[in-house]
Write a structure and sequence with these properties.
heterodimer, A: alpha/beta, 6-stranded mixed sheet, 4-stranded antiparallel sheet, 12 helices, 34% helix, B: 217 residues, mainly alpha, 0% strand, elongated, cell membrane (chain B), MetI-like (chain B)
Chain lengths: 343, 217
C-alpha cells in the first residue's frame, strides 16, 4: 500500500550538507500497521513527512496505493493527499473552530454539501467517542481528546492510509493506551493501512505488525514485530527492547542483598526470556527436576506478535546442591540467567 | 465656548473619524494581501519565492521610511490625479491609505508568523490548496492578532490624519493647528487634544474587546 524506494533526503545547512534520509526503502502491506522506531534526530520525522510529500525527497520513489507521488502536479498531489490521513504529535487543530468545525474542515475543502457534512461529522465524532464535545473549542479539551478530534478529522475523507507522526508522544501512559486502541480499532474496522513513527517501544509492541529501526537516516533493521523481538540483530534494537522492559530490584531486597553466599543465603536470579528462549513451562520443570522452589520477586512478561518475552527476578530456594544445575538448565533453554546476589 | 467653535470641533471629529476608518479600510485592502504574500513567499513557506519576497520587502521598507508629512506632499500630483484635489478629507485619504498599507503589511506578516507552523502542515496534509490555507486557516486563526493590528493601525492613522491637518487635510488636526497654533486659542487646542485622546482610547477598548471575543486559544 505504501512503498518507499531508495529515498534520500539531504538538507543544506549554511555551508554543510546534512543527510536526513539515506537510501531508505520500505514496504507497508495493505491493512497492516507498520512502525518506524528511532531516537530523536534519527530522521523518522523526515521519513513520515516524505510519504505525503510535506517534505520532498532529494531522490527516490514514493508509491502510495499504486500512484507514484513524486510525478504528480501540485493539484493532483492535493487530491491524492486526501487519501492519506495524517495525525501529529501536537494535534494541530484549528483553535478558531469548534470540534465539529475542525472535523468538518477537510469536507469543506472538497465542497461537501452542508447536510452531508453534518451527518458525516456526527458519525465520526461518535466513532472517536466525542459526540458530546461537538460545540466545544479545542482549548477546553485534554490531550487525548484533541488527538481523537484530529483522528476524526483525518478520517473524514475516508483515507486508505494513515500516517501517525509521534501521535502519542505528548500523552500520558493511560491516554496513550486508549489512543493506540483506537488506532488499532480503526485499522481493523476500516481496513486502513497505518504507518507510524515513534520513539516508544511500547507503541510498536502494542499495535504494530511490522517494525523498522531507523538510525542516522538509515533503516538498520526491519521485519515482523515477532521476529525483531525474538532475534534483534542491532545493538540499538536491543536497547529499544530493553527499554520497554524495566525491572528494578525492590528496596527490601536491595537492602539485604549480599555479594557472596555465606552458606545459608538464597541466590537472587534475573531471568531474561527473549524470542530465542524455548517456549516451554521451564520454571515448573526446573522446580520439579531439581527439587527447588521459586519465589517470584518481580516480573514483567509481555507478548509481541507470537513471541513471549520479558524479565523476571526470582529467589531460588530448596536443595542447595542443585542450584548450579538449575541455573545451567535455564541457560540450556536459552534463558539469559544472571545471579544478582544472595539474600 | 461659542456654538461656532463647538460646531467646528464636532465637524473636525467627524472628519478625523472618516479619515481614520476609510483610509484604514483602504490600507487593509492593500496591506492585508501584501502581508499575506510577504508571509507565503518567505523561505520554506508554501509559496517560497525568494525574489518576489525580497522585491515586496524592499517596496514596503521604502514606503515605511518616508515620513508621513513628506509622503503627503510628495504624493500631491498622484492625489490630484485620483480625487481631483489636493486639499480636504478626500484628498487626505489617498496618502493616508498608502502610508498605512506597508505598515499594515508588516503587522499582518508578523501576525501570521506567530501561528504554529503545524497548522499549515496539517492543512496541507488534508489536501488544502494554498488559497484554502489562506482563507480557511491563516486568516481565521490569526484573527485575534489581526484585530490587534487593526487597532494599532487606526490609532496610528488618528495621528497621521492630525498631521495631515497642518497641510490642509481637515479634521481635528486642522482645527488644533489653526485655532491653537496660529490663533493662540488654548481652550480649543486642549479640546482637540481631549477629543483625540478619547478617540484613541475608544479604538483601543473596542479592539481589545473584539480580539478577546474571537480568541479561543
Amino acid at each position: 500500500m505504501i512503498e518507499l524506494k531508495n529515498v534520500t533526503k539531504t538538507f543544506h545547512q549554511k555551508d554543510r550538507i546534512v543527510s536526513a534520509l539515506d537510501d531508505v526503502s520500505l514496504k507497508v502491506p495493505p491493512g497492516k500497521i507498520f512502525g518506524v522506531i528511532g531516537t530523536s534526530g534519527a530522521g523518522k520525522s523526515t521519513l513520515i513527512r516524505c510519504v505525503n510529500l510535506l517534505e520532498r525527497p532529494t531522490s527516490g520513489e514514493i508509491i502510495v496505493d499504486g500512484k507514484a507521488l513524486m510525478q504528480l502536479s501540485n493539484a493532483e498531489l492535493a487530491t491524492e493527499r486526501r487519501q492519506i490521513g495524517m495525525i501529529f504529535q501536537h494535534f494541530n487543530l484549528l483553535s478558531s473552530r469548534t470540534v465539529f468545525d475542525n472535523v468538518a474542515f477537510p469536507l469543506e475543502l472538497v465542497g461537501t454539501p452542508k447536510a452531508a457534512i453534518k451527518t458525516r461529522v456526527l458519525e465520526l465524532l461518535q466513532l472517536v467517542g466525542l459526540a458530546e464535545k461537538a460545540n466545544d473549542y479545542p482549548a477546553s479539551l485534554s490531550g487525548g481528546q484533541k488527538q481523537r478530534v484530529a483522528i476524526a478529522r483525518t478520517l473524514a475523507n475516508n483515507p486508505k492510509v494513515l500516517l501517525c507522526d509521534e501521535a502519542t508522544s505528548a500523552l500520558d501512559p493511560a491516554t496513550t493506551r486508549s489512543i493506540l486502541n483506537l488506532l488499532k480499532d480503526i485499522n481493523r474496522r476500516l481496513n486502513i493501512t497505518v504507518l507510524l513513527i515513534t520513539h516508544q517501544m511500547e507503541v510498536v509492541k502494542s499495535i504494530c505488525d511490522e517494525v523498522a529501526v531507523i538510525s542516522h537516516g538509515k533503516l538498520i533493521e526491519q521485519g515482523s514485530v515477532g521476529e525483531i523481538f525474538a532475534d534483534p540483530k542491532h545493538e540499538l534494537t536491543k536497547e529499544f527492547i530493553a527499554s520497554s522492559l524495566h525491572l528494578e530490584i525492590p528496596d527490601v531486597y536491595q537492602e539485604k542483598l549480599q555479594k557472596a553466599d555465606n552458606g545459608s543465603l538464597n541466590p537472587l536470579l534475573k531471568l531474561e526470556m527473549t524470542g530465542k528462549s524455548v517456549n516451554e513451562p521451564v520454571i515448573s520443570e526446573v522446580s520439579r527436576l531439581f527439587d527447588t522452589n521459586f519465589k517470584i520477586v518481580s516480573a514483567q512478561m509481555d507478548q509481541a506478535g507470537d513471541v513471549n518475552f520479558g524479565v523476571m527476578l526470582i529467589e531460588l530456594s530448596g536443595k542447595r546442591e542443585n542450584y548450579d544445575a538449575a541455573i545451567q538448565y535455564f541457560i540450556s533453554k536459552h534463558i539469559k540467567t544472571e545471579i544478582i546476589g544472595y539474600v | 465656548m461659542s456654538d461656532s467653535i463647538i460646531a467646528l470641533l464636532l465637524n473636525g471629529t467627524w472628519e478625523t473619524i472618516v479619515m481614520t476608518f476609510v483610509s484604514g479600510f483602504f490600507g487593509f485592502l492593500i496591506g492585508l494581501p501584501t502581508g499575506v504574500l510577504l508571509f507565503l513567499t518567505r523561505k520554506n513557506q508554501i509559496l517560497d519565492q525568494p525574489v518576489l519576497n525580497r522585491t515586496l520587502s524592499v517596496i514596503v521598507n521604502v514606503f515605511r521610511s518616508i515620513p508621513f508629512i513628506i509622503l503627503i506632499v510628495w504624493m500631491i500630483p498622484f492625489t490630484r490625479a485620483i480625487v481631483g484635489t489636493s486639499i480636504g478629507v478626500s484628498a487626505a485619504l489617498v496618502p493616508l491609505s498608502i502610508g498605512a498599507a506597508p505598515f499594515i503589511a508588516r503587522l499582518v506578516e508578523n501576525s501570521l508568523l506567530g501561528l504554529p507552523s503545524g497548522l499549515i502542515e496539517a492543512a496541507r496534509a488534508l489536501g488544502a490548496t494554498p488559497l484554502q490555507i489562506v482563507y480557511k486557516v491563516l486568516l481565521p486563526e490569526a484573527l485575534p492578532s489581526l484585530i490587534n493590528a487593526a487597532s494599532i493601525t487606526l490609532i496610528t492613522l488618528v495621528g497621521y490624519s492630525a498631521m495631515g491637518g497642518a497641510v490642509g487635510a481637515g479634521g481635528l488636526g486642522q482645527v488644533g493647528y489653526q485655532y491653537g497654533y496660529i490663533g493662540y486659542d488654548a481652550v480649543t487646542m486642549n479640546s482637540v487634544l481631549a477629543l483625540l485622546v478619547i478617540l484613541v482610547f475608544l479604538i483601543q477598548f473596542i479592539g481589545d474587546r473584539l480580539s478577546k471575543h474571537f480568541d479561543h486559544r
